[in-house]
From TrEMBL, chain A:
The gene is Pigu. The lineage of its organism: Eukaryota, Metazoa, Chordata, Craniata, Vertebrata. It comes from Trogon melanurus (Black-tailed trogon). It is a multi-pass membrane protein. GO terms for cellular component: GPI-anchor transamidase complex. This is PIGU protein. Its main location: endoplasmic reticulum.
UniProtKB/TrEMBL annotation, chain B:
Residues 1-20 form the signal peptide. The keyword Transferase does not apply. One of its GO terms (biological process) is attachment of GPI anchor to protein. It comes from Trogon melanurus. Keywords: Signal. It holds the Pfam family Gpi16. This is PIGT transamidase.
Length: 350, 579
């Protein structure tokens, strides 16, 4: 049921988002911000018509979603809350978005980082320019932050009254942050902390937790014009680097991929990355069985597949990021670039 | 005149001197020692030594400074830490109840320590930790490994065996170390606590090279307060040191089941301990299946004693080492037993209550612990309390707990479950189960195995991890009515457990310890793992850093690097167009 709710929420969200994107595009064309020969890069309503349906199908038919549904994991509920948060943000309702974000943060700590993209989107929607000195910017930020913090505090106090003690805070959030249980999962952390020297364990726990949170500010600075893509990258980073990742988290950010299907021509490594991801997903249960049941493999085998799978995911996200930035460059500078002497030019990152 | 005065002074002082020289005065301690030799149905011989020191002094209140028979180490321990009852057992091997019958006093494999503290103790956990460390020093055993991860507080199982005012179970602590090995190093300090040491009395038989060449070896120390007399107005302290050893006479006796003290212990008894008020050897000569004259005991015993022990009428041949007639003919006493006819060993009397435990399942992820409890009494049903302590790294799923008797589900009338906390305390499961007559009860519970940090594994991780024995306590109904025993008059082996009425006797059984494998990480890899994981994180960081801090530029045609320029110079020399 929660999966269906997630799919519906994503569908409505992307539909709205498409309308916004289209409007923005039209505006920019009229303002003549785009170079003249980028006609083929502009998104047309024809291809954008089917994107919401594709998103919903991508989520529902993803084998990862099916697997987490069969396992009866609470990840589906997490995904639903985040999807509703995305829907509320895109529709523009600050109150609902703050409430859903508070719910998502209450469940696992990491959606806290989604505060920034949501704020950016809402500011854009209200047409408030993002200048550090502008009063209206700070006013709106404060409003949104206050809404979010209040709803979070309300939810935590409700839990306190249910339990009559504050014990749940170290049990829930302390557990997420300090990673005491080392059951093997598809993430990077379990083997790392199983083999950690005692002396350094606190240091490395802090480093890994900071690693999840610190991409927010640089991404906010770079992607302040495109908060929805920022949200996508942020969700992907959370699901790769959180302390106990599951395949349900991966299913959520993969559902967003059809939204950027127009970036397909700029992706560099998509074929090899999709092969890596598919092969690793297939090898996971095999090597798990060999380690635990057959006894003929080591924990190193399963760990190696974990490493490869995570590298695949990271490269997928960074590939999409690269393609997005490249398209933006082409939109403003024209598709066919020529050098000063008229020959075909190459684009590099410097 | 002065001489008379001096004499009078001397006479006045003399009684005082005499009184000071008299040992004890109002404090009296007595020692009784006994050895019980019982042939077991399967052909083995069980020898149970008991040394009981009873001290009519109040260790808790009066500042006692003069220790005579009671060992000072234990006396100071009881007084300083507010211990009411202490039971420590170090065991190697397992008592096979089905083959050997009901044990007089069983202990689980490894080390077991359970202690009742006085109500005046404020911080019981601190006292427990100090106590286990001090005992570890006294007995040269690794009892300092007892900490919160293997200590539990049972609510129903270990009721006090001595005098008790109230039973607040928060004053009870129980811990078992199944991995502990017992060897000569533990026997030597145990023998040092005996008043005569190993120089006189029954303790001369305790030689390590024979004792550890056995199927079962268990040495224990029990301290408890008892009534001083029938009116129970004052408290005495009792220290019992017991040692049970089971010898396999078949393999050491070249196929014959005859045994003698010399063959078992390679020593004979020469005299009684001079400090003991009673020193006796009991040999179980009970006729089986009413066949008399099946065995012959030499030398002839000083007396025959009949008693009802554990619901059975037994006959004992008694050798009193303090009676002068025993050592008339020879200087040493070597009790020998010869079987006149080969015994019909196909019929083994089954004990009324016995149990088995095993772990099942495949793979390193899940498993199942099954306990089978047998009640072979033909018509009487009785309840049994089962106490299970499972370490935290085997995560029990209590919703899979099933108890099945005779094909139907059996609901326990009392169940107490305390879930484990990772790295802090173990699982505790206590149940009161009614066992119908002539039935087998199967209790199963599933668990999941956890992956530990690599420093938490023992040096031989693939050997596995031990799960301590579970404890079954029951009042087993006996066929023959038992009289109330007077502790001072009857042999020691009948008075260990207090009996409330004559129709049942108390039995405490232990099941086998389990050995469970846990999934192990690769122990040679810590540095490699750190490098590889940090590499993956760095890949992410690197690509994101590139994308965030750099912008796209049109590439300027470079004039070529150093290699290209060198190549162009060489081409100029050759006359070929440049690159």
């Amino acid at each position: 049921i929660t999966d269906v709710l997630t799919a519906v929420a994503l569908y409505l969200a992307i539909q709205d988002f498409n309308k916004v994107v289209f409007k923005k595009q039209k505006l920019l064309i009229e303002l003549d911000k785009y170079a003249p020969d980028v006609a083929e890069l502009i998104q047309t309503p024809m291809e954008m018509h089917y994107i919401p349906l594709k998103v919903a199908l991508f989520y529902l038919l993803n084998p990862y979603t099916v697997m987490s549904c069969v396992a009866k994991s609470t990840c589906a509920i997490n995904n639903t809350v985040i999807a509703f948060f995305v829907l509320a943000t895109i529709k523009g309702s600050a109150f609902l978005s703050a409430v859903f974000l508070a719910l998502a943060t209450y469940q696992s700590l990491y959606p806290l980082t989604l505060f920034a993209p949501a704020l950016l989107y809402l500011l854009q929607r209200q047409f408030i320019p993002i200048k550090l000195k502008s009063k209206s910017f700070w006013l709106y930020t404060m409003q949104y932050a206050a809404l979010y913090l209040c709803s979070l505090v309300v939810i935590i106090c409700l839990s306190f009254f249910l339990l009559n003690s504050w014990d749940f805070i170290p049990s829930v959030y302390g557990f997420i942050l300090s990673v005491p249980d080392l059951t093997p999962n598809i993430g990077l952390f379990w083997y790392f902390f199983a083999e950690m020297f005692e002396h350094f364990s606190l240091f490395f726990v802090c480093v890994f937790q900071i690693n999840v949170f610190f991409y927010t500010i640089p991404l906010a600075i770079k992607l302040k014009e495109h908060p929805v893509f920022f949200m996508f990258v942020q969700i992907a980073i959370i699901s790769i680097f959180k302390s106990y990742p599951t395949v349900g988290d991966i299913a959520l950010y993969m559902a967003f991929l059809p939204v950027w299907s127009h970036l397909y021509r700029f992706l560099r490594n998509i074929f090899i990355l999709s092969c890596v991801l598919i092969v690793c997903s297939l090898l996971f249960p095999v090597l798990w069985h060999l380690w635990i049941y057959a006894g003929s493999a080591n924990s190193n085998f399963y760990y190696a597949i974990t490493l490869t799978f995570n590298i695949g995911q990271i490269l997928l996200v960074s590939d999409y990021f690269y393609a997005f930035l490249r398209r933006e460059y082409y939109l403003t500078h024209g598709l066919h670039l020529t050098r000063q002497d008229g020959t075909e030019a190459m684009l590099v990152l410097k | 005149m002065a001489a008379v005065g001096a004499l009078v002074q001397l006479l006045l002082l003399l009684p005082a001197v005499l009184e000071a020289a008299a040992p004890g005065g109002t404090q009296r301690d007595t020692l009784r020692e006994e050895l019980l030799l019982s042939p077991l149905p399967a052909g083995d011989v069980a020898a149970t030594f008991q040394f009981r020191t009873r001290w009519d002094a109040d260790l808790q209140r009066g500042a006692v400074s003069h220790y005579r028979l009671f060992p000072k180490a234990l006396g100071r321990l009881v007084a300083a830490l507010g211990v009411r009852e202490l039971h420590l057992a170090l065991t190697q091997g397992f008592w096979r109840t089905q083959a050997w019958g009901q044990p007089p006093l069983q202990a689980p494999a490894g080390a077991e320590l359970w202690v009742w503290f006085q109500p005046t103790v404020t911080d019981v956990d601190k006292a427990w930790k100090e106590l286990s460390n001090i005992l570890s020093g006294i007995f040269c055993a690794s009892l300092n490994f007892i900490d919160s991860t293997n200590t539990v507080t049972p609510t129903a199982s270990f009721k006090p065996l001595g005098l008790a005012n109230g039973t607040d179970h928060h004053l009870l602590r129980y811990a078992v170390l199944p991995r502990e090995v017992v060897c000569t190093e533990n026997l030597t300090p145990w023998k040092k606590l005996l008043p005569c040491g190993s120089k006189a009395g029954l303790a001369v038989l305790l030689k390590a090279e024979r004792l550890f060449h056995s199927s079962y070896h268990s040495q224990a120390v029990h301290i408890r307060p008892i009534c001083r007399d029938a009116s129970c107005l004052a408290v005495s302290w009792e220290l019992r040191q017991t040692l049970t050893v089971v010898f396999d006479t078949f393999s050491s006796g070249q196929g014959k089941k005859d045994w003698s003290l010399f063959r078992m212990f390679s020593r004979t008894l020469t005299d009684a301990c001079p400090l003991a008020s009673q020193s006796k050897v009991y040999v179980d000569i009970s006729p089986k299946n009413k066949e008399k004259d099946l065995l012959e005991v030499t030398p002839p015993p000083t007396s025959i004693h009949e008693a009802i022990v554990q619901g059975d009428k037994r006959t004992y041949a008694v050798y009193d080492l303090l009676s002068p007639s025993l050592f008339n003919t020879s200087r040493s006493l070597n009790v020998q037993l010869k079987w006149k006819r080969p015994q019909d060993s196909s019929e083994l009397p089954t004990p009324v209550l016995h149990a088995q435990r095993y772990v099942s399942g495949y793979g390193l992820q899940t498993g199942e612990i099954s306990t089978l409890i047998y009640n072979t009494h033909p018509y009487r049903a009785f309840p049994v309390i089962l106490l299970e302590t499972v370490p935290w790294y085997l995560r029990l799923y209590v919703h899979t707990l099933t108890i099945i008797t005779k094909g139907k589900e059996n609901k326990p009338s009392y169940i107490h479950y305390q879930p484990a906390q990772d790295r802090r305390r173990p699982h505790l499961l206590e149940m009161l189960i009614q066992l119908p007559a002539n039935s087998v009860t199967k209790i199963t519970i599933q668990f999941e195995r956890a992956l530990l940090k690599w420093t938490e594994y023992t040096p031989d991780p693939n050997h596995g991890f031990y799960v301590g024995s579970s404890v079954l306590s029951a009042l087993v109904p006996s066929v023959i009515a038992m009289k109330d025993v007077d502790v001072e008059q009857s042999p020691l082996f009948t008075s260990l457990f207090p009996s409330s009425d004559g129709s049942s006797y108390f039995v405490r059984l232990y099941t086998e310890p389990l050995l469970v494998n846990l999934p192990t990480p690769d122990f040679s890899m810590p540095y490699n793992v750190i490098c590889l994981t940090c590499t993956v994180v760095a890949v992410c960081y690197g690509s994101f850093y590139n994308l965030l801090t750099r912008t796209f530029h049109v590439e300027e045609p470079s004039r070529g690097g150093l290699a290209k320029r060198l190549a162009n110079i060489i081409r100029q020399f050759r006359g070929v167009p440049p690159l």
